[in-house]
Amino acid sequence: MASAGRYEAGGITLSDGGRIAYQIHGQQNGGTPVLLIRPLGGSMALWGPFRDALSEGSRVVSFDHRGAGSSSAAKWVSTQSLACDSVRVLDHLDVSRANVFGISLGGMIATWLAILTPQRVAKLCIASAAACGLELSRTGLRRGFALGACFARKREDVEATLVDRILSRAFHEGSPDQVRRIEATVRSTPASRTALLKLALAGILHDASRELHRIVTPTLVLAGQNDALLGEQPPRILSESITDATFEIIAGSGHDLTLEQPLVTAARVSRFFLS
User: How many domains does the chain have?
Assistant: First the structure.
């Protein structure tokens, strides 16, 4: 494992010859580590201030999905197979249990992680996700078609456009410099159109609704007040389907809480994990 500035970076070689890239921040911290699971679009570099804030009190492990960032592509992926990738990261780092945070696609993956390997999840935080990947609402369908159009862009523009479309209008108007920095970060390691389509399809086909009763881990479900992609109701319904889960709204945020309200979200997540 090589040291890279304030964090450690490494890679896991898989049995199929593939590779999963990971980073560890806050190595000096004890206690239960935190595992971050990414949404669709962007590498682990996009965790930015959110991860920095979490790593002030916890050891934080992040990684790139298969086909994203510095990880190699897979022939196919599902939210369950991506949950298995998460376990491989924990196994490689000898982490027996972790506090798990997943957002959007990452929230779906984290859901399966808690269902399939409950002994590996100390506490679970799911943000901006639903029990089923395809939420059939008028707003959701209109937004889905808009996101689908991103895949028709040039290869180098697809991922940056996807991330840009997820950001709320209020964030675009109020934080243009941050929007430009986010776009530059995404463009620094663009994923292929094929890899992004595989990850998007994994999210669309996700359905854990019949298995949510199996989650026994203490769970916090978060939603953005201005989430035009998913809205508030699907995450709320998700929380109601998990025994004793807590549901909260992050004010002033769109779909990606970690980009639009990174410090507020990190403070809430840290408080939950460390309590």
Answer: 1
